[in-house]
Every structure is written in C-alpha cells, then in structure tokens.
Specification:
- With 412 residues, the protein is an alpha/beta fold.
- It has 15 helices and twelve strands.
- The chain has a nine-stranded mixed sheet with strand order 1-2-3-4-5-6-7-8-9.
- Helix 1 crosses helix 13.
- The protein binds pyridoxal-5'-phosphate (PLP) and iron/sulfur cluster.
Length: 412
C-alpha cells in the first residue's frame, strides 16, 4: 500500500454549510450584563474588575456546572486561577457541556490527575533562563516574560506553573536584569514579549519597555504574544495602536483556538492593530473537543484571514500536568494539516509544531509529502494523494527526461 492510512483527499469532506456557519461573525452580546452602561462595558478596566473568578460568581451565571467542573472550580486557586472576562464569558453556551469556550475556561477535577510523563515546566524554560524571566533557547532570539497575569486563564496553559501565581511561584519580572542581558548579548536580534499577557500593562508602562528595547541597536525585531485581542478586545484602543506603531517593526501573535472566538468585536480590534501596520499572526493549541477536527480548524484559519491575521503555528498541547483531558493527538494534528495544505489558501495553512518535551524547542511536524529521495529523483505526493517524480541528477545538472507522473502500481 503506497499511502499508509487514508489518501490525502479523503479528509476533504468538510461541508460548505458547516464551514460557513462556523465562520459567521457575531457579536458576543451583553448577556447577563445588559444593564451595564456602554461606557463601562467598553472599558477594559471594567472588564478586568468584573471578571468571573470564584464559585460564588460563576454559579449563578452557569447553573449547569457539572460535578467535575464544580470540583475543578473549587481547586482552581491552588493550581491556576479561574478568571474570565464578562465579554468572553458571553461566548459560552450554557446548554452545551462540550462548549469549546467552556472547555478552555472552566476548570475540571481532571486537572488534578497527573501522569508520570507530565511536567510543571514541560518546555524546560526555567533551565534555559540565563536570568529569571528570560528564556534564551534559540541562537538569535529570546522570550521575555513581562508579567504573570492574563486577562483570563486557559486551563491548558503551558506556563501555569507561574501564570496567575496560584502555585506560589511568585514570578516578578526584573526588567533591568532582563534588558541588561539583551544589551550584553549582541546575538539577540529578536525579542518576544510574553508572559502572562504584556497588553495588560498600561500604555505608559508598555511604552517605557518598548522604548528601552528599541534603544538596543542589535534588537531588530520585536513581537508581542497576547491573547488580549480575544479575551478583552476593549483593550485594543486607538491610543494603544498609535503608541505601538512607533516601535516598528513590531509584530503581534494572537492566540485563538476556535472560530467562535472571532466575534465582530474581535474583528474590529484586530482591524485597528492591522491599520497601525502591525503584522498579525495566530498561534492555536490543538485541543480535544475544541479544535481537533478539520472542519473547525479550517473555519478558524479562513476566519483568521478575514480578520487580517496570518495563521502561524498550531501547537501540539504541551505535556503540562493535569492536561490529558484537553490534549488533542499528534495524529489528529497531522490529519488536520493534510486537510488544509492544498485544500485551502496557502496563507491559511500554519506550521504544526511539537515543543519537544524537556526543552528541545519547536519541532515542525509535517505529513509526508516526500515519499522517497534517491540520488537521481525525488518521489512526491500531492494534496490529493497523487504521486509524482521529480528527476534530479546527482551532479545537479539538468536531466534529459522531463518529470512524469508515476502510476501507484509502479511503486508498490
Ligand atoms: C516559541 C519560542 C520562540 C519564538 O520562536 P519562533 O519560531 O521564532 O516563533 C523563542 N523563544 C522561545 C523560548 C520560544 O518558546
Ligand atoms: S493567555 Fe497564554 S499565558 Fe495566559 S493563561 Fe492563556 S495560554 Fe497561558
């Protein structure tokens, strides 16, 4: 058998109706907060102040809590805090136990079930930190952790050891030491601000940090990793965008996992960032019952393009302690990649990566498009599962015979 498993085209079974319904843009609405004045609802600080962060706040809003969720909520403050902005809470469908937003946000008792191969620091970040809060794993770029706070907390967070400070890790960024390391390390040409969420800072605080980074001559490229455009689109004010655009080249990577997260509010916020000339990328995590299915992922990728965001990475979920119930499988990720490449716009196809457990960094994982490679030819498989030969003389000179398609039977 030439194609082990399904031919590539068999997965292209997404119905256009299912796709289009997932891609519809809707407002998150006002839900329980219909009486809150517009000026407060649209104020990001109001949204933060009114987050759902305890059982007493959650229960009246989500009376359908299951025993598993109830147990999780009660234990959340010893593991990773519970917090959901009112805006984002409105995306939960209370009648659906498997609602993809609910799955990402509401703690479950399974978070306390830990397997021996799971870890608190699955990417070995702490070991690769020359100074606290700065991860220098790759030769020319650093991950700069600026805070341990987020607008809302994702139950699968790879940095839950420090994010929200529920475990008492007590992370405090020390900008002077972090900046000093970058100043003294000319190899660092790319700085990725993350955390926690850098956009939780005030405009002023962020501006101070960006100014100091831009003053370092060898820092060519700055990016911000943030989920705030999704959790708190109210934060993306015109003032913030006007400030950020003074620090170009500045890229932003957002984090969006399900097409429902892309509301009309989010589309407008992303439009403001894009209008400020900020190239936008997206990082998704492959999550069970959220996006481990081709139709959902394809809708997400296409909808991101409509929001002017280029899909960048799909991450295999890290082996974070207590995340087994949330993780999709590498096999599912590969099937999704097969179903995207060639079947939709190339810009809508991200790179699927596994962050190698223990600190190996991001490893790209791809379906097999190169079936074999010899001294004189490469055998290729296209998105439909058809096989092609690309002749190539060992000395690199052009070969006499043109490429031809090989019948599958010739290869078996
Ligand atoms: C992901 C990551 C980066 C950025 O990697 P890119 O592939 O350039 O996006 C840098 N440092 C660390 C530690 C990372 O985990
Ligand atoms: S936004 Fe990012 S850092 Fe914050 S909880 Fe979610 S995954 Fe973790």
């Amino acid at each position: 058998m030439l194609n082990n498993g399904l031919p590539l085209s068999a997965k292209d079974s997404t119905s256009i109706d299912a796709l289009n319904s997932l891609k519809e843009f809707k407002s998150a609405g006002r839900g329980f907060w219909a009486n809150v004045p517009e000026s407060e609802w649209n104020d990001w600080r109001w949204q933060l102040k009114n987050r759902i962060s305890s059982m007493s706040k959650l229960e009246p809003l989500l009376p359908t809590l299951t025993p598993e969720e109830r147990g999780g909520v009660l234990l959340a403050n010893t593991k990773l805090a519970l917090a959901i902005t009112p805006y984002f809470f409105n995306l939960i469908d209370p009648s659906d136990e498997n609602c993809p937003i609910r799955t990402q946000m509401i703690p479950r008792i399974e978070e306390t079930h830990t397997a021996s191969w799971e870890m608190l620091d699955p990417c070995g970040e702490d070991e690769h930190s020359p100074v606290p809060g700065l991860v220098h794993r790759y030769p020319d770029r650093v991950l700069f952790l600026v805070t341990d706070r987020c607008a809302a907390y994702c139950r699968y967070c790879t940095r839950s050891r420090l994010v929200s400070n529920a475990t008492g890790y007590d992370f405090h960024a020390d900008f002077e030491r972090q900046l000093d390391y970058i100043r003294k390390t000319p190899a660092v040409r790319d700085v990725l601000l993350s955390g926690g969420d850098p956009l939780l800072f005030s405009d002023h605080k962020l501006e101070m940090l960006l100014t100091q980074l831009r003053a370092i001559p060898h820092v060519e490229f700055i990016r911000i990793g943030t989920r705030i455009p999704i959790f708190l689109p109210q934060r993306i004010t015109v003032e913030l965008c006007a400030m950020l655009k003074r620090f170009h080249p500045l890229f932003i990577s957002i984090h969006c996992n399900h097409p429902r997260e892309l509301t009309t509010e989010v589309r407008e916020a992303l439009g403001r960032l894009a209008d400020a000339g900020i190239p936008l990328g997206n990082q998704s995590v492959l999550l069970r019952n959220v996006n481990n299915e081709l139709t959902v992922m394809k809708a997400l990728m296409q909808k991101l393009l409509m929001c002017r965001v280029r899909p960048y990475y799909i991450y295999q979920c890290d082996l974070i302690s207590g995340s087994a119930h949330l993780r999709g499988s590498v096999r599912e990720g590969l099937e999704i990649m097969k179903g995207l490449r060639g079947h939709t716009t190339g810009y809508a196809v991200p790179q699927f990566v596994v962050d190698a457990p223990g600190g190996g960094g991001k490893v790209p994982v791809n379906p097999d498009y190169v079936l074999s490679r010899n001294a004189d030819r490469v055998i290729l498989r296209n998105f439909e599962g058809k096989v092609f030969e690309y002749p190539e003389a060992a000395d690199g000179l052009p070969v006499a015979s043109p490429p031809k398609m090989i019948e599958e039977t010739e290869l078996v």
